[in-house]
């Protein structure tokens, strides 16, 4: 089923701009890059690479990087911004790569866009070589279980995040500034079970927060875990 990405690509590119949105710039890029540097991979696959920003960041580290995405317009942008890069059209559920070809597989905020995570995790593990790492940044279950209006004032004047039906996996359409996409909410246990079922070993877990900034958005992002980073090892 169409999840809105092709039609939303233009608005998404405006949203990211040249340097990435707040979540990437202020919260996720630094800890994700730190994990990449620690793993010291030579061949990385970025699943759901979008316009390729994390591929470009890994390429700067000297890593041979392949980006995969189903959205043609985002892939065209990735190729234009990084002509020497390797960008392939495809879906996480059916990776067009042979077994064990990569020593790092990355999913940077793409799991919530993928319909069949069981199949996607099976594919991620298949293309990873033994001893390789799977590095995942995902929206936290607390963030993805949010219900409108999201941030709301509590009776005693504080700001809280509204969530409901946490344990109910579901795909909902979300809209902002011209982007209209279908995102999955799944409880954390669903993802953990899928990774564990495929024999992976958890090497690192983190709930990253914005460092330094004191503006209202950063303060809110320090109040609840909006994101998780998980690094898995393939035995
Ligand atoms: C939130 S964007 C993240 C893009 C990029 N990783 C980044 O952080 O800028 C999610 C991406 O997942 C892609 N996507 C959607 N369905 C997918 C699927 N079944 N397999 C792989 N990628 C998918 C979308 O095209 C989109 O580029």
Structure, described:
There is one protein chain. The protein has 235 residues and is α/β, with parallel strands linked by helices. The protein has a single domain (5-139, 199-233), classed as Rossmann fold (3-Layer(aba) Sandwich). The protein has eight helices and eleven strands. It has helices at residues 5-16, 22-39, 53-60, 72-81, 117-127, 141-144, 188-197, 216-223, and strands spanning 43-47, 64-69, 86-89, 102-108, 128-139, 146-153, 159-163, 170-176, 179-185, 201-206, 227-233. The model has no long low-confidence stretch (mean pLDDT 96). S-adenosylmethionine (SAM) is lined by residues 3, 5, 47-50, 53-54, 69-71, 74, 91-93, 108-110, 113-114.
Order of helices and strands: HHEHEHEEHEHEEEEHEHE
Helix and strand composition category: alpha/beta
> Which strand-content bin applies to the residues?
25-35%
CATH architecture: 3-Layer(aba) Sandwich
Strand order of the largest sheet: 3-2-1-4-5-11-10
Helical element count? 8
Rg (C-alpha, Å): 17 Å
The CATH C-level class name? Alpha Beta
Summarize the structure.
The protein has eight helices and eleven strands. The protein is α/β, with parallel strands linked by helices. The chain binds S-adenosylmethionine (SAM).
């Amino acid at each position: 089923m169409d999840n809105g990405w092709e039609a939303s690509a233009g608005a998404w590119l405006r949203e990211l701009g040249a340097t990435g949105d707040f979540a990437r710039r202020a919260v996720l890029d630094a800890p994700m890059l730190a994990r990449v540097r620690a793993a010291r991979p030579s061949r990385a696959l970025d699943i759901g690479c979008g316009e390729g920003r994390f591929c470009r960041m890994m390429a700067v580290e000297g890593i041979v990087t392949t980006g995969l995405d189903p959205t043609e317009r985002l892939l065209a942008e990735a190729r234009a911004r990084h002509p020497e890069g390797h960008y392939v059209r495809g879906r996480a559920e059916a990776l067009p790569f042979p077994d064990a070809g990569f020593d790092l597989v990355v999913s940077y905020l793409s799991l919530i866009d993928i319909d069949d995570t069981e199949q996607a995790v099976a594919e991620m593990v298949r293309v990873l070589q033994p001893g390789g790492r799977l590095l995942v940044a995902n929206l936290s279950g607390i963030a993805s279980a949010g219900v409108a209006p999201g941030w709301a004032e509590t009776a005693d004047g504080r700001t809280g995040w509204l969530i409901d039906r946490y344990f109910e996996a579901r795909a909902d359409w979300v809209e902002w500034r011209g982007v209209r996409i279908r995102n999955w909410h799944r409880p954390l246990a669903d993802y953990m079970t899928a990774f564990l079922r495929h024999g992976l070993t958890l090497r690192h877990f983190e709930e990253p927060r914005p460092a330094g900034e004191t503006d209202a958005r950063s303060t809110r992002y320090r109040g609840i875990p909006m994101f998780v980073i998980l690094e898995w090892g393939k035995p």
